[in-house]
Each structure stands twice: as structure tokens, then as C-alpha cells.
Design brief:
Length: 330
Amino acid sequence: MIILGIETSCDETSVAILENEKVLSNIVLSQIDIHKKFGGVVPEVAARHHLLNLPIIYEKALKEAKINPNQIGAVAVTYGPGLIGALLVGLSFAKGLSLRYDIPLIGVNHIIGHVYANYIAYPHLKPPFIVLMVSGGHTEILKVDEKKIEVLGKTVDDAAGEAFDKVARILGLGYPGGPEIEKVSKNGNPNRFNFPRPMLDSPDYNFSFSGLKTSVLYTVQKLKDNIPTADIAASFQEAVVDVLLKKTFKAARNNGINKIVLAGGVAANSRLRQKAKSLGEKFNYEILIPPLEFCTDNAAMIAMAGYHKYLKGEINTLELEAVPNLKINS
Ligand code: KG4
Ligand code: ZN
């Protein structure tokens, strides 16, 4: 079974081809350099670039996988959540392929796609497991079992990735902020500033990052000219990682689940990966984290999620619409 995946929900144009669970190609074209000068993603610009580049990326993916389009058995595409114009480009392209080659169309929730990135590295992964889903738009703790995905907790304000991006801007670092903060943190002291760990001891599994961001802002304003960027970045990163992992481990413990899976762009963060692994060893939890290239947006994870839907007979009609604020259980 050959499955083609398409991802255009934000600022990455990506097409991947899988043969069952094996990735034959996964081409990702990032628009970061285009949006950098605006300090964030400009939706209209993103959609236009998807439109320009998707046919080229599609050809590249076919070529690298050494597949001709007649061999494709199904097409999986992100239909939400994301930017409406960007989503529509991928969805229309997928519908065209479905019609032209008479193959099933499978709509994939982008967030579920991030979870399925783990099946690329661990094809034998079996529920139940707890997911820490951390990206630019989402921060959620999910409980996955054979039948359903339950949202145990989520951010009440900014997403973790968004906090990284905003703090990077406060510190005058580039966009996207996550990788920049990670880079400068390597030379910083994570214990120099004791930034707040919001909602750490609340009984739920929710997060809040906007107060932490404001605390960094006040610290920077107070220090005026002499700003120890590396120490602030490292202390901020430590606070985020601390809250994310404490809550995730609490969710795993309270639900009697000993497998924890990381997903989403922020799961590329080396401090988060390292601390998750060491806490896992200490408290005896199995920790699964996708390889770096499958943490940030890519079509291989969409194809993988689509393949699993296909196996369950969950296919869509050409009526499928893009849903910018798509929820996990819809
Ligand atoms: O999953 P993703 O590629 O796109 C969304 O679906 O949002 O996540 C992008 C987010 C951005 O906020 C970016 O700053 C963050 O992931 N990110 C990181 C790292 N790499 C990407 N955050 C912290 N450390 C990183 N190494
Ligand atoms: Zn994403």
C-alpha cells in the first residue's frame, strides 16, 4: 500500500510517500526565511507560497520515492487545525489527486499527525500511552488508548512554542524562537533567574505560559542595558521544561500508564528531550520521542496517521472541508 501525505497547515509545505509504515520520501520546504522578516507567519503569504511550491514538492517526493502516481493507493491530507488559506491549498490538491487517480481521500487532524510521528520511529507502539503534545499552536496532555484520545489538560493561554517565540523576540533573538533559545541557552546558567512555574501545583493538567513570558519581559526591562541573554534564555527554558514534564509525569502516574510520548515542534528541544529521558529512567517510565525531523511539521506524520485511519476504514468524501480550529475529538 502506497500512501501519499500532504501538509500545508502553517509555514511548511511538505509531501511524503509511505509504503505501509516505511517512509520512502518526506520532502519539507520551510517558509521560515520568508516570514522571518515579519517576526511570525503571515497567513496570506503562507498560502501563496504553498500554492507555488506544492506541485514542485509533490514531484520531488515522487521522484525520491521512485514511485509513479498510478501506484498511489490513498492520499492523506491535513484538514485542520491551521491557517484556512494554507489548509485549503493542500486540501484542494489532495482532492485533485483523489479524483484523478480514483483513490481514497483521508483527512488528518494535524495534532493527531504529530502523535503519529512516533509510529515512524516505533512502528510497534501500542496504546495506552500519555502524550505531551507541544507545538507553536498547541500544548496538551493527551491520554491515548485503543478506542479514543482524551484531552487531560491544555494551556489556558499561550502554547509552549508560542512562549518560546515571544521570549525570543523579547531577547532580540530570531524567529522561530525555540531553536534560537535552545542555542543560546547552551552557554547560560539555568538557575540564575528563578522564573515562575505557573500552575505547577494545581490539581489539573492545565498549563499557563503568559505570566512566565511577562516575568521575562519585566526582568529584561529592569536590567535595561546589561542583559545576560544566555542566562535568561536558559532559565526560561528550564522553567518551561520543568512545568511540562512535571505535569506529564503526574498525568501518567495518576492514570497508571508507564509510557510517555513526546510530540510537536517543541519536542525537538534538546533540554526537554534530555530531561524527559532522565526522569523516565529515574521513575521507571518508557519515554518515546520522534527523531528531530519528524517533530516539526512534516507530511510523513500525516501519511502515517492517514494510513492508520485507512486501516480502520475511516475515509472521507470530496465534501471534506478545511477546519481552522479543528478539535481533537471531532
Ligand atoms: O509543530 P510545529 O513545527 O508547528 C506547529 O504545528 O505549531 O512547532 C513549531 C514550534 C515553534 O513555536 C518553534 O519555536 C518550536 O516549535 N520549536 C522549538 C524547537 N524547535 C521548534 N521550541 C523549543 N526548542 C526547539 N528546539
Ligand atoms: Zn505542527
